[in-house]
Design goal:
The protein is α+β, with helices and mostly antiparallel strands and 72 residues long. The chain has one domain (12-67). It has helices at 33-39, 50-55, 66-70; strands at 12-15, 20-23, 42-44, 59-60. A hairpin with a 4-residue loop joins strand 1 (12-15) and strand 2 (20-23). The structure holds zinc ion.
Length: 72
């Protein structure tokens, strides 16, 4: 089980290593969040929105956010 950072106000976590953004509500094993956290590449978004994620040139993780982003 991945130990998530304690930040209940945030939903999305960005990995600055590969510029991927993850949805903490829907984390999958393929997200490899443990690596992100262990190496200190975790970044929060402010505001915590998909628009901000795109503005900062992060891509959405296909495992945890990819599906949701396609829904209108
Ligand atoms: Zn992910």
């Amino acid at each position: 089980m991945v130990r998530l950072p304690q930040n209940p106000d945030k939903r999305y976590l960005g990995a600055s290593l590969d510029l991927e953004a993850h949805d903490l509500d829907n984390i999958q094993p393929q997200c490899k969040l443990e690596e992100v956290l262990a190496t200190g590449y975790a970044r929060w978004f402010d505001p915590d929105t998909l628009e901000e994620i795109e503005r900062r040139a992060f891509t959405l993780c296909q495992w945890c956010v990819g599906e949701a982003s396609e829904t209108a």
